[in-house]
Design brief:
Elements (H helix, E strand, L loop, with lengths): L9 H9 L4 E5 L3 H7 L10 H17 L4 E5 L2 H10 L7 H14 L2 E3 L5 H26 L11 H20 L2 E9 L6 E9 L6 E2 L1 H17 L3 E8 L14 E9 L2 E4 L2 H8 L15 E3 L15
Parallel strand pairs: 1-2, 8-10
Antiparallel strand pairs: 2-3, 4-5, 4-7, 5-6, 7-8, 8-9
Helix pairs in contact: 6-8, 7-8
Length: about 300
């Protein structure tokens, strides 16, 4: 920037500087959390919808000024604990402001890019759930400790094994859009992770880094602790891969059980039973239209040097 282009007017300079100072906002995403904050006298809102409209207007205004704003979730219970830990009065605006900064520093955040809050909030809740799952799974995985025989870090070894299992699984599934769910009964509540992958023309599947990290951590926890669990895939095949007589899009469901720190393929009947049985009552439920229940694909089991 040349000296001639520098801002000399104080107000212009302040506006330019404002664009270089990021902002943070913590949002009360649902009615229950909003109601919890209404008990504070200094909380200035009475209606959740109006609150969200006002917040969206502010976010849009900041975006129009070129200000980058990160949005996090405001958790009333966590806020109450935060104030108690720091001996802050929770019924003060500056306490809420300090908590907002802390939530942006340590919690799940998304950058506001001008979209309606109705679009942003589900993604933010999903990101917060993903981070909570990763924190929980990481803590569980850390319990694995070290191998008594060789001293290796079992968590590290299990994560490498989980990564290999995922790579082999996606290669075996081939082209299509894959929705994977992994559940592991290694803690209370059980660990659960979801991963979306898309593969076309034999190319390497496209994966979201954050989803992949959480998914592999959950799977690794099951491997390291040899905990019961399962993995299911739901695949929508590309149009070119469908038969000419197909009456519409079809999906294929497959399943695997965790055993001996690897994935054991389930038979078609086991997959059908798992999907077509009510988890609470045990009663059979009708199969979904357009869904094929297929056996899990066999995956090459690598050596397990820590299975003594």
């Amino acid at each position: 920037m040349t000296s001639a282009s520098r801002h000399t007017d104080p107000s212009t300079a302040r506006r330019a500087l404002r664009r270089e100072i990021p902002s943070s906002a913590a949002v009360l995403a649902d009615e229950r959390d909003f109601t919890a904050m209404r008990r504070y006298r200094t909380f200035p809102f009475d209606d959740h919808r109006s609150y969200l409209r006002q917040l969206e207007t502010l976010l849009r205004r900041l975006a129009a000024q070129g200000v980058l704003t990160t949005v996090s979730l405001f958790d009333p219970a966590a806020y109450e604990k935060y104030c108690a830990d720091l001996a802050l009065d929770p019924d003060r605006p500056d306490s809420r402001s300090r908590y907002t900064a802390e939530a942006a520093r340590t919690g799940a955040t998304l950058t506001y890019q001008g979209e309606p809050l109705s679009q942003l909030l589900p993604l933010l809740v999903e990101e917060a759930d993903r981070q909570a799952t990763w924190d929980h799974a990481s803590g569980v995985l850390a319990r694995a400790g070290r191998c008594d025989a060789c001293g290796d870090d079992l968590a590290h070894a299990a994560f490498a094994r989980a990564t290999q299992a995922l790579q082999e699984l996606l290669t075996s599934l081939g082209d299509g859009t894959h929705h994977l769910v992994c559940s592991v009964a290694a803690a209370e509540p059980p660990l659960l992770a979801v991963l979306h992958a898309t593969g076309d023309d034999g190319a390497r599947p496209q994966l979201a880094e954050s989803e992949t990290l959480v998914f592999c951590t959950v799977l690794a926890a099951g491997f390291a602790l040899r905990a019961p669990g399962g993995l299911v895939s739901r695949t929508t095949t590309p149009p070119a891969a469908r038969t000419a007589t197909s009456d519409g899009p079809r999906e294929t469901v497959r399943g695997w059980a965790l055993g001996d720190s690897w994935l054991r393929p389930l038979g078609a009947a086991e997959v059908f039973t798992a999907y077509c049985t009510d988890a609470e009552t045990g009663e059979p439920i009708p199969p979904e239209h357009g869904v094929d229940y297929a056996p899990g694909l066999p995956l090459t089991t690598p050596p397990d040097p820590h299975h003594h």
